[in-house]
Predict the structure of Family 20 glycosylhydrolase.
Amino acid sequence: MNRLIAILCLIALNCFSQSNLKETYNLMPWPKSIEENNHRFVIDENLTVSIEGDSPKRVQHAVTSFLRRLSNRSGVFINEGFAMPLSENQQASIQISFKESAKLIVDDDESYKLDIQSNKVTLVAHTDVGAIRGLETLLQLLTNNDSEYYLPGVSISDAPRFVWRGLMIDVSRHFHPIDVIKRNLDAMASVKMNVFHWHLTDDQGFRIESKIYPKLHELASDGLYYTQDQIKEIVEYASILGIRVIPEFDVPGHATAILTAYPELGSKPGATYKIERYAGVFDPTLDPTNEDVYVFLENLFTEIAPLFPDFYFHIGGDENEGKHWDANEQIQKFKKDHNLSTNHDLQTYFNIRLEKILNKLDKKLVGWDEIMTPNMPKTAIIHSWRGEHEGLAKGGTLIEAAKKGYNTILSNGFYIDRMESVVKHYQTEPIGDVQLTEDERSRILGGEVTMWSELVTPLTIDSRIWPRTAAIAERLWSPKNITDTDNMLKRLEVINYRLEDVGITHIRNKDVILRNLSNNQDISALEVLSHVCEPLKIYSRNEGGTEYKTYSPFTLFADACNVDAKDALKFKKAVTNYSKTHSEAHKTDIISLLEIWSKNHEAFQKIDKNPKITPLETLSYNLSEVSKFLLKRIKNERTSKKDMKTFKSQIETLKQPFADVELVIVNDLENLFEALK
Ligand code: ACM
């Protein structure tokens, strides 16, 4: 009995100390285990790094980046700016060793062990990729007091929960040049993500040079495409960071760009096509009954596949409504002749043909979950994207795929283009409470964040991807029981600005947009509004896909705003707590925000108006007015019945969208009013 109590105490103590540790260290993803010692490794100019391991290219690159970021953050003039082999410096203060170079395949070992003592840091990994994951942890540990920067004494043992932790970037709807891709790869590596899924083709553009079918990039990209040399450059860049690159060629639907170049491959006889400028699901579809389609795809894939060394090749396969198939008599006859009763069966026929082509090229087929039809070979990987997340607890296509014998990855719940809170994504647990056999569990490879780019340009894409993707990276790397949302938000605040160290432009570009909006006048009033406004969510910003074309302006107020608006979060917390406790501290927080908002309209009015700003005037005015009213209430000053009526009508006004943003504090303003009754 005493032993049992002792064990329980130890477990409780361990849980307590782990949660305390989370208060101290701004690590993301949170490691599998971390223990403190009483040491402290001080950063000074004598710091040196050694590497022991064959083919140290990745680790050398990572150490150079580590040392630059370390000295940039600490201001320390480190004497030696590069790593050396252990044989040349047995006394190096940071010693890194690994056994082998990762092959960049799904089951690479990415584990590492880190030990920080007063005069020595040891980082041991099985592979070079494990070592570079550990270096990112080391850098996240950097902290300071008023006289020195140091690495706190800890021992960490870490390994990922899922082997596939990806980010998909759609470069078709809006093209994103290689510098955008590179900085996002750097950011991915900083939070230990390991798959870049490159959505290269869609209705709005074919973004890769083809030497054998040059009309694809010449006629279907507006000149915005990657040369094959650029593709190789990105694949190499990613490889150095331990990131696999999976290309996606979306077929047979989402094919308007392909058909713009080669209309004879389409399902509508005699049709010609133009690159799509709007967003949505469109009818142009490859003709699966036309042998020339398979010749085209085999030639194209044979040309393109060698640019991507990864085993996996994504063929899309989503959202084919088959309207052009239904309207084509010859296709209908083909279905009858081949005993294919539905369009799904016809698409499976097409997918199986593609699978054979890809097999010849030594590639495994990945497709969105529409490809999971009864005859689809189990060698395909199912990419789960549809269905409500609530459905996942009961199954969802991820679990269904694993149970049916497919390897599978999850994106449902990780659609960051829906502009929903990081909390929602963080709480998307891929497996939930579902009971799985060991084999079924092993088939769930992980997940991918999806950055569909209908509403993002190179100016804004970073602010849509980050920082939310860092929290999803944690969901996919860290143990299942790391779920404390408040703690995640606290760490994310720090990780957010550290992403700037690797070149992510999410914070700085906001002011670029606001200066453009105001014609370079004082932007502080717009900043205040942007801290309580968020872009319209779940695709309502672009109702029906026709409000914005691919070349519309994405330099509007909505583009400067972001999800999880910071003062809105602060206000919500203060109002929720104040409603429960009526404490002075929360009251003070509320008053300070209301004072900012109540004065803001005066500042807003000082900006010379232009057509981009004028639509915000009603929002700005009413926010100031309701804030003034609530200030009076919270300070127990007199308000009349008329004031109250005006307040209620102003609140109703504020519930409307303005210039594609919503004021996300409206409910909390109302809640505060109720709490003050
Ligand atoms: C998708 O979002 N259509 C895969």
